[in-house]
Design goal:
Strand content: over 45%
Number of domains: 2
Keywords: Signal
Helix content: 10-25%
Shape: globular
Protein name: Secreted protein
């Protein structure tokens, strides 16, 4: 009987340890996931096609900066694609914090892969500019003509700084939002605004 009790006790301890590890993993998972966030918003183009806007953000404490990217595309039954050749589009990206005393020192590439900009540029018929205010930064990109999906991707970085001391604000939430208006062949649609919210970790 004592042997059986020891076996059951050992099995019970193992089960408790396993459950404890599982619950610890479950508790820690949201913290790990808090370093990155993403959002997708869409609007129907026709019964089988959606116009989508994707936004992703990731803040790295060791670097004191946040990384973000956006992707606009059409979602078809065969997967995501770019836009037709006669397309015209205007995209707005807004970077801000939930702390009104924090401003964004941002740079971006439009389209992704082009040299980083802090004011504005025209790369591959994508005309972009950056407008700064006290506690937010807005990037506007106008696309002349369609093209592959990669042409409609913008990425960049931002350093959230405190107005009072000029130091990096690691506490507040970083928020990256974007929407796009696309016009082509009888289509004239604007996506809802997609927002990714993330804290430093």
């Amino acid at each position: 009987m004592n042997v059986h009790r020891k076996i059951f006790a050992a099995a019970g301890a193992a089960a408790l340890l396993s459950a404890g590890l599982t619950s610890t993993a479950l508790v820690q998972a949201p913290e790990a996931a808090a370093a990155m966030a993403s959002d997708v918003k869409s609007v129907p183009v026709d019964p089988v096609t959606q116009l989508e806007m994707h936004v992703t953000a990731n803040c790295v404490t060791a670097e004191g900066r946040c990384y973000w990217d956006t992707q606009a595309n059409l979602l078809t039954p065969n997967g995501p694609i770019g836009f037709p050749g006669d397309a015209w589009a205007r995209q707005t990206v807004t970077l801000r914090s939930n702390d009104r005393d924090t401003w964004q020192e941002a740079e971006y590439s439009a389209p992704s892969g082009m040299p980083r900009e802090v004011k504005g540029a025209n790369h591959a018929n994508v005309l972009s500019k950056q407008l700064k205010s006290i506690n937010s930064t807005e990037i506007s990109a106008t696309y002349f003509g369609g093209g592959p999906i990669e042409r409609f991707r913008i990425d960049g970085t931002s350093i959230p700084l405190n107005w009072a001391n000029g130091q990096v604000s690691l506490g507040p939430t970083f928020i990256a939002c974007s929407n796009i208006r696309v016009v082509y062949g009888g289509v004239n649609l604007t996506t809802p605004t997609a927002c990714a919210q993330v804290k430093f970790s």
